[in-house]
Predict the 3D structure of the following.
Amino acid sequence: MKIGSKIALFYTVITVGAIALIVLVFYLFTLRYINKVYDSYLSEKAQKYWEKDEVDESRYREIQQKYDELLPQAYEILLNADSVTAVADTLAKYLDRHQQARLFKNEPVTFVYGRLRGAALYYPDNEGNFVVLVMASNHYGQDIQKHILMLAFLLLALSCGLVFLIGKVYANRILLPLQHLLKDLKRI
């Protein structure tokens, strides 16, 4: 391998490595953000149960329609927290002990159950104590993640080729005076 190609390859490896690291960080933060937004939708949908007896019928229908549009295929489970054994068995299926402890401290809890993302809320009410679980698959978020990943690989491959070509051109330009010098030495 010629020295110009070695320089171009070295330059390409360093540059593409840095670009790959930046793309990886971008992808991970995007993935985290997408899941965080979806979890907030799930938590808000779980809160609609709280608002049922607190708002009038037309306002509740608006709330219901909004969340049915956001999460059309959500699974909803409403548990009466006063029946301890049934609630404990159901919660153990979806939440670990730490999450259950946070739930009963009135902290919203998000979880993953298989391919579903979920949110759980505890709601003490004058009619009783309730636990609401809402779970759904984030199909839109998964599609966005796939597109971002494909785009990242495509751009990484294109940048790899482009950086190598630019590196090759500059390496040859830098080495041109040295090549002339070597030709003159051979001639002498």
